[in-house]
Amino acid sequence: MEQNTENTTFDCGYMKGTLPSCAPLSVPFVPFQGMNQQKYDSAKALSRGTLFPGLDLPWKNVVPGAADTSTPIGELSALGFVINELGLYLDTHRSDTEALKLYLDYVELYKKGAAKYIELYGPLFQTDVTKNGYTWLDNPWPWDVTERRAR
Amino acid sequence: MFIYQKKLQYPVNISTTNPKLAQIIISQYGGPDGELGASLRYLSQRYSMPYPELKGLLTDIGTEELGHLEMVGTIVYQLTKNLKERELMDSGFANYFVDHTAGIYPTAASGFPWSASSMQVKGDMIADLTEDMAAEQKARVTYDNILRMSDDPDVSDAIRFLRAREIVHFQRFGEGLRLATERLDQKNIYAVNPSFD
User: Fold this and answer.
1) Helix, strand or coil for residue B169?
2) What's B25's domain CATH number?
3) Mean pLDDT for chain B?
């Protein structure tokens, strides 16, 4: 009974998804997002709050300013965000092998970025003990106000 | 289990103290459509979900909402840093301040403390997912309303990000509901509750 969603080839454009031609009554239907849709790069995805232009529906059409991804933490946030977004997408599109490949590419990039970040700025996880010792406790914590662009 | 990662999902850096704005944004920490309720709703509903896509989706979105809770807490914390005592009485923040000083407490902007009665776990996947879709819409509207009142670009920036996530989550819950209902008897999808029967 899954044939009318995941396994169908879509051609509705990135702003549209697919609906069944006939459907049971009294059920809410959200169009299924098609596979191989346009995607933003990681910096733009973080700025827009979504990887997918089709889901980018801002309030009063105000386009947000670019998130600062020039800092190590900004760069890492952008990579982590794409992983989070693709993870949710894969939860409902598990047969999209291209998305899975992209997901794995970003996981690799994140691993490399995280290693660099930890070396320069300290642990992301408590187990990330560096040559400087037990720096897990060191400020700043995520809610602390930091000098802009400091990290 | 959960493991803490020492970073925010989206960077928050607010330099201007603004208790008026903090007083309304606290609603997304502990209000009826806030991030605490969102997270607990999804992470609690997932146990009775019958299909793997739904278990995954509720776990993953519920986890992301915990990250949003941390972002909202950070926004309120930074907006109330360096508060001057003489500003308090005129700021609208006095009623919060008298009970919580500049601590972060899960309450609605109205002063009503966070309540599990603002969420539900029905143990029926169609009812629960339909609630989740409504919950995403209500949170989206709360962020719309915050954007109407915010005059700080650093705050609006983070709020726009959080609002965008509600729209993506709505889409995913809708897809989850479709994957789930397609497994049911198409002549009568309400014949049984697959979480229980």
Assistant:
1) helix
2) 1.20.1260.10
3) 96
Q: Answer whether residue B4 is part of any domain.
A: no
For chain A, what is the mean pLDDT?
90
Q: Which domain holds residue B117?
A: 21-181
Give the count of domains, chain A.
1
Identify the residue whose tokens are 């098609």: A34
Is residue A109, in this structure, part of any structural domain at all? yes
Among A27, A60, A85, whose Cβ lies nearest the Cβ of B189?
A27
Alpha helices, DSSP H, located in chain A: 42-48, 72-92, 97-121
Question: Residue A106 — very low, low, confident or very high, per pLDDT cuts 50/70/90?
Answer: very high
Nearest by CB to A92, from B11, B164, B176: name it.
B176
ipTM here: 0.96
Sign of CA dihedral B48, B51, B52, B54: negative
Is the peptide bond preceding residue B194 cis, with omega within 30 degrees of 0? Answer: no
Q: Does the beta-carbon distance from A125 to B53 stay under 8 Å? A: no
Q: Does B7 fall in a domain?
A: no
CB atoms within 10 A of CB A6: 18
Q: Is residue B34 part of a domain?
A: yes
- Asked if residue A23 is part of any domain, the answer here is no
Domain that holds residue A107: 41-47+70-124
Looking at the 3D structure of chain B, how many domains does it have?
A: 1
Q: Which residues of A touch B7 (CB under 8 A)?
A: 73, 76-77, 80, 124, 142
Place of tokens 């919060």: B96
Residue range B128-142: mean pLDDT, rounded? 98
Query: What whole-number distance in Å separates Cα of residue A134 and Cα of residue B181?
Result: 50
Reported as a pLDDT band with limits 50, 70 and 90, residue A3 is very low
